[in-house]
Amino acid sequence: MPTSLALFLAVSFPAFTLSHPTVPSGQSVPLHHRSRPQRTPEEWGLWAKAHRERLTAKYGAGQPEKRSTGTNLITNQNSDASFFGSLAIGTPPVSYNVILDTGSADLWLADSNCVTNCDEVATFNPSQSSTFTTNNAAFNISYGSGKASGTIGADNIQMAGFSVSNQTLGLCDTVSDGLLTAPISGLLGLAFKTIASSGATPFWEALVSAGAWDSPVMGFQLTRFINDTTARSLEPGGSFSMGFVNTTLFTGDIEYLELATDPSYWILPLTAMTVQGNSVQVPTGVAAYSAIDTGTTLVGGPAEYMTSMYSQIPGAAPGTGNFDGYYTYPCDTTVNLTVSFGGKSWPISEADFRMTQLTQNQCIGAFFNLQTGRSAPDWIFGDTLLKNVYSVFRYDPPSVGFAQLSNVALAMNGVNAPVPSATVGSVATTVTATGRSGNSGVSMHMPGSSVVSMAVAWTVGLLAGLSILL
Ligand SMILES: *[C@@H]1O[C@H](CO)[C@@H](O)[C@H](O)[C@H]1NC(C)=O
Ligand SMILES: *[C@@H]1O[C@H](CO)[C@@H](O)[C@H](O)[C@H]1NC(C)=O
Ligand SMILES: *[C@@H]1O[C@H](CO)[C@@H](O)[C@H](O)[C@H]1NC(C)=O
Ligand SMILES: *[C@@H]1O[C@H](CO)[C@@H](O)[C@H](O)[C@H]1NC(C)=O
Ligand SMILES: *[C@@H]1O[C@H](CO)[C@@H](O)[C@H](O)[C@H]1NC(C)=O
Predict the structure, then answer these.
(1) pTM for the full model?
(2) 357 within some domain
(3) How many beta carbons lie within 10 A of that of residue 447, not counting itself?
(4) Which residue range(s) make up the domain with 174?
(5) Which atom of ligand 5 is least distant from the CA of 435?
(6) For the segment 134-177, what is each residue's pLDDT rounded down to a tens digit?
(7) Within 10 A of 343 (CB to CB), how many other CB atoms are there?
(8) 37 lines ligand 4 (CB under 6 A)
(9) Are residues 368 and 388 in the same domain?
(10) Angstrom distance (rounded) from CA 135 to CA 363
(11) Residue 115 Cα to ligand 5 middle (Å)
């Protein structure tokens, strides 16, 4: 599969510290080695200057005016197929709907030159923004079943009361079939810079690394409409919070689990799975790596483990035709499935497991065979899981947290309420993005390496699949 995504390795700064001779307390120790000379004011001055420059390079030019928090209301599209929010671009700001995707790290939109596969999609016209800049570098992003390409630009981006000036974004004039379904205009990547195909610091990371958030977390509550036969194509989707977790939406503690890898995707190890009360074999080590991905509809994993999981459901069988790689099971079976990533076990509701009903007694499960690219984790846990928990993506220490949904959150499932209109919010906090290579020295381009971003691959594949079904 062609992919031009490049792997960027974050190389952290060597600690820049002053070596003071240590003075042990409570006892006197003879100094056998020469103590360091006192620094002269000139030396202090040089250190202070270098220290400030390094921190400025690391955290961007502007520190935020103040810390803040914000909420973006989400829309649920096509019975849980995708979840999108709203942001605004440029001067004057114009709002657009974007998929909120913790499985990738680029922001891109269809631009006004996109004519094919952009029907009814609101496109961004850079000539109408006075703050837009571009150096016309190429932008390409490839997913398992689609790609988008165009040029790289930068502009002011606002979302949930936050603003980042000079934020890099892709402007796509070429978008493959099925990638965007109106009213969605693009995608906002919420994973780490290390997997950004543009190489740019993602919007969320520009904010959190500059200290713009009260707390270094993003929270998701996603609604369920998959089992509501009266669901409209757009329904209220829940909420996305930046800088705080909304305690109204969960009960008990958030269980945080450290990421299994250096920050890239949000990766946890799958440690246990049960079906109908029976444990299912799960892999260990790298083979257990699982991306926690709001931009993916279902759950994908290696065929051998899927086969062993479905073997616990009497009557389950591999799907055929369009459902190759999926599994059927008798619709009169109530599937009770739990998953764990090292802590508590989280049940996935029978409603989410039942992706669709094919015939009177043939249902299709939401777990399917997936073979990922070499640099992507083997498992992708999408909204099938995330509708069952309050999920938190924490920057520092890098971790994913899960908590039990509150009754307030559960009461939003399947309710025909008005769909939220754009909720960009008035700007409380602004930071300046470090830009494409603004943090010179911290990124290393590794030509030849590639990652296959799973971002919308499965959303895209599944949107296509779902449109066959619905
Ligand atoms: C990348 O995007 C540019 C501009 O749209 C296009 O001309 C080029 O063919 C793309 N390259 C790849 C490898 O897809
Ligand atoms: C949808 O599924 C949930 C969870 O299993 C259940 O509580 C709810 O009653 C179901 N709604 C409908 C309309 O069947
Ligand atoms: C938290 O969620 C509740 C329920 O949706 C909502 O009413 C409230 O406004 C949210 N709080 C914030 C600060 O967004
Ligand atoms: C589902 O399975 C789990 C794990 O075996 C068990 O604790 C739970 O009680 C089961 N739930 C139902 C509704 O059967
Ligand atoms: C925006 O970022 C680019 C790339 O890092 C940089 O060259 C440019 O000077 C920045 N522009 C502003 C106005 O900060």
Answers:
(1) 0.83
(2) yes
(3) 7
(4) 15-215+232-244+420-457
(5) 5
(6) 999 999 998 755 789 999 999 999 999 999 999 999 999 999 99
(7) 14
(8) no
(9) yes
(10) 51
(11) 29
